């Protein structure tokens, strides 16, 4: 089974950090502006699932961001919406993204729309401006899953985010793959490391 997942959220909330954590189990600190669709496979209940994960930097240019948003929402079967617990505006954006996704895509069962809300940077609790309860309540009110994680500190919780989304998708409607037309931005993970020659793990 092949599923498309898009990781969305405003600037610097940790979209790349979460994606790279899943793929490499590592936190490398700085990620640059890398636009990529990564493939990652794992077994669930004896079946191999391949995730195509689209991670892109947030664009300051609102017209670019709006047109990309539409493409991403149409392309994806499942959504990971990330905010930083230290950034209230990023939380508000997640709330808006949920409405956009729900109004853009037709789901057989709107309550089962495969969205996972992620409050990242849990390790920075001393700078917290969004309480856990607020994230939980948003998820409850919009029928989404919710996780609070630290991509910096913990691989396992990041894994749970992606597994939680796949579980959610199993319950809902998985659409057939469409031709993507995004080959130009597909890069391998080696590109991530090639750019960061000075990284140490
Ligand atoms: N303390 C802490 N820092 C984090 C965490 N996740 C990401 N960061 C840092 O936050 C900054 C932004 O992380 P990115 O993963 O590049 O964020 P992004 O959402 O992909 O950002 P854009 O590509 O600009 O849209 C980097 O300096 C990361 O090291 C986390 O869980 N805890």
Automatic annotation (TrEMBL):
It is an enzyme of class 3 (hydrolase). Keywords: GTP-binding, Hydrolase, Nucleotide-binding. InterPro entries: P-loop_NTPase, Ras-related_GTPase, Small_GTP-bd, Small_GTPase. GO terms for molecular function: G protein activity; GTP binding. Its EC number is 3.6.5.2. It catalyses: GTP + H2O = GDP + phosphate + H(+). NCBIfam families: small_GTP. Belongs to the small GTPase superfamily. Ras family. This is small monomeric GTPase. It comes from Mastacembelus armatus (zig-zag eel).
């Amino acid at each position: 089974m092949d599923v498309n997942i898009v990781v969305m959220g405003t600037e610097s909330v940790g979209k790349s950090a979460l994606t790279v954590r899943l793929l490499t189990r590592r936190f490398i600190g700085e990620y640059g502006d890398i636009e990529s669709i990564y493939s990652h496979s794992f077994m669930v209940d004896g079946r191999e699932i391949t995730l195509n994960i689209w991670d892109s930097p947030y664009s300051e240019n609102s017209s670019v961001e709006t047109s990309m948003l539409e493409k991403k929402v149409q392309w994806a079967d499942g959504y990971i919406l990330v905010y930083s617990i230290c950034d209230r505006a990023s939380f508000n954006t997640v709330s808006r993204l949920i409405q956009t996704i729900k109004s853009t895509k037709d789901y057989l069962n709107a309550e089962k729309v495969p969205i996972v809300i992620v409050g990242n940077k849990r390790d920075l609790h001393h700078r917290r401006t969004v309480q856990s309860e607020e994230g939980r309540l948003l998820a409850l009110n919009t029928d989404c899953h919710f996780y609070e994680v630290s991509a910096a500190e913990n691989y396992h919780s990041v894994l749970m985010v992606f597994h939680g989304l796949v579980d959610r998708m199993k319950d809902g409607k998985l659409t057939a793959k469409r031709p993507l037309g995004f080959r130009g931005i597909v890069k391998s993970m080696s590109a991530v490391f090639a750019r960061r020659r000075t990284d140490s793990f």
